[in-house]
Amino acid sequence: MKKMTGRLLSISAALLLLTNSVTAFAEQGSANIVSASSVPESAQSAQAGSGGSASEGTTEKKSAPIIMNQGVRQNSYELGLGGATVTMIKGKESGQQLAIVVKSNDGRIIVVDGGFKTNAPYLGEYIKANGGKVAVWLLTHPHVDHVGALDVMLEQQRSGNPKDFAKIDLGEIYYSFAPMDFYKAHEQEYRLPVIQESYDDIAAYDQSKVHYNSPAGTSFDIGNVNVQILNQPYLFDIDTGNNSSICYMLTINGKKILITGDLPYEAAEQLLKDRGAAALKADVVQLAHHGQHGGSFAFYSAVGAKYALWPTPQSLWDKRDEAFTEDQQTYTIALTRHWMNKLSVEQNFVMADGDWTFR
Prior knowledge:
alpha/beta; Metallo-beta-lactamase, Chain A; 9-stranded mixed β-sheet; 18 strands
């Protein structure tokens, strides 16, 4: 991961070691969409601000067996979404990715990003199990761990031999990438082929279904899910791809879920300045850049979420107890988890544990 030079936080320096917390797996559900009918008491009463994953360090109640889907553990948590569900997908990936599937109360599907190319079969089966039709696809930025799965589906459908994705309607696509010339001038060279591929794949898609560069504040409803686009891509010449992340506010049955993509420090501070703290307030926040090198303490303080979604693989989550200082220039998993503790986040839900469905 790239160092963030010149990013100093105005927080007092101190060396801290983090402690594990009391949390638990939710254990009941069906093979496709997990049931939240029985959340263990230990998960419901987890220590506020504990900073552990929702599966970490707790003695579970003996109840229903662990639910698996395509070999992946299915976890569930009740948020009160009025018949809608939000699922953060791990799939069969061992690395970091962002793939979120929202199902509205009337059964319509919203996909956020979609994850790696290798996640396409798992995501495709998930979509088909829930009707096979995507209403809206929301993209944050054109990195392969975010747009790869959609690229595969678009290319396979266009090839005339769609195989796995023949029965999937990919729906409307909302995206606002920075100009390709800007990426070429400032982005890491190894990322450019995937960025160009995403541009080309979307350009070859039915343009009546494509929404490019929607203004900040654009809002629309899918069933009981309101989607608001919070920004257009910021053009920073450092960490260019991640800094161009588009953020979305989902409002479902009065609950607000903030999607941040890979938003780094610079863009997070700019978004806070542009939109103001009130516009960023949320009940749930997806931690930027998989929980490291993303956001800032001021940004997360403004959001004030009770619940944190970590699209974080085991390899990163294992670093949560490493030493850190609050004024260090590299935002590690350990520092981000310390921020969540400090902000009294009640539950941390970690992708490493499997798929998480919120109801």
